[in-house]
Design goal:
Elements (H helix, E strand, L loop, with lengths): L2 H8 L17 H4 L33 E7 L3 H12 L4 H7 L3 H7 L5 E5 L4 H7 L3 H13 L8 E3 L11 H8 L3 E3 L10 E9 L3 H12 L5 E8 L1
Parallel strand pairs: 1-6, 2-5, 5-6
Antiparallel strand pairs: 3-4
The chain binds zinc ion (2 copies).
Length: 228
């Protein structure tokens, strides 16, 4: 972020992306109208308790549970995600997550669990000034009491933005992109909730899960704010 956009962000008046009322990026009135996902299986999109991936769907997709708050195709959600990620308006995550505290408390088990934000390469993080997944995890943590573990996984390769690539190239782009750090701090039996803003093909979280499985972490789940 440049100096000028940073300074202007300090004077920015928060306005609701929906109704334009001042005070919030997503006001309480509009958030009560937001359509939340009912639990479904991320692979076949059919109903499933607690967002668990069906046994018969888990051959190609080996993550146990993918918890998704709302639909990415809502124009305003798309706008919120873009502004929160690229334009420093990460306060929008708070405005989206807190009114939906019950949703997160219902599906996230706090016992022996940690929240692990999908990591960013340090250069990209330095350029953006923050990792949006960390901002999301911090808000979810305040609601559920599950600690955030930022130094567990690192992104060691500066990969291209996944959204610009085809499915096949997304997988190739991510090979060997991540590694584990501080492994001694994290119990092998703990449930690891990978946190991301938007999930589309799932190639990033799958690549991280592969790495975790290889290192003995078998209980991997995903929390994201929006998906198709
Ligand atoms: Zn509003
Ligand atoms: Zn299924």
């Amino acid at each position: 972020m440049g100096v000028i956009s940073y300074i202007s962000s300090l004077f920015w008046v928060n306005k609701c992306f929906w109704c334009q009322k001042s005070g919030h990026f997503f006001c309480p009135q509009c958030s009560s109208d937001l359509e939340l996902y009912s639990p479904y299986c991320y692979v076949c999109k059919k109903t499933s308790d607690d967002f668990t991936v069906h046994k018969q769907c888990s051959n190609s997709f080996f993550i146990r549970q993918v918890i998704v708050l709302t639909r990415y195709r809502h124009t305003q959600i798309k706008k919120l995600m873009r502004h929160a990620k690229y334009y420093k308006k990460y306060r929008a995550y708070h405005d989206l997550i807190f009114p939906n505290a019950d949703f997160f408390r219902k599906y996230i088990h706090s016992e022996n669990s940690i929240l692990v934000p999908v990591p960013m390469h340090f250069l990209r993080r330095w350029k953006r000034g923050y990792n949006q997944s960390e901002k999301i995890a911090q808000n979810v943590s305040k609601i559920c009491g599950v600690p955030v573990e930022n130094n567990f996984i690192i992104r060691r390769r500066y990969t291209k933005q996944q959204s610009h690539l085809s499915q096949q190239n997304r997988v190739k782009n991510l090979s060997w992109a991540f590694s584990l750090k501080d492994i001694t701090n994290v119990d092998k039996n703990s449930t690891i909730y990978l946190v991301d803003d938007v999930i589309s093909t799932g190639s990033t979280v799958l690549e991280i899960t592969r790495l975790l499985h290889k290192n003995g972490y078998k209980k991997v789940k995903v929390i994201c704010l929006a998906s198709d």
